[in-house]
Amino acid sequence: MQIERNASLKALNTFGIEAKAAFLATFHSADELRLILESTEIKNFPKMILGGGSNLLFTQDYDGLILKNGISGIECIREDEDHFYVKAGAGENWHDFVLTCIKNGYAGIENLSLIPGNVGASPMQNIGAYGVEIKDRFDHLEAFNLETGDVEIFSGEECEFGYRESVFKRKLKGKYVIVSVTFQLLKKPDFQVKYGAITTELEEMGVKELSIEAISQAVINIRNSKLPNPKDLGNAGSFFKNPVISAAQWKKISAKHPEIPNYPAPENEIKLAAGWLIEQAGWKGKRIGNCGMHAKQALVLVNYGGATGQEIYDHSTRVKESVAEQFGVELEREVNIL
Question: Domain containing 146: what range?
Answer without folding.
Answer: 74-226
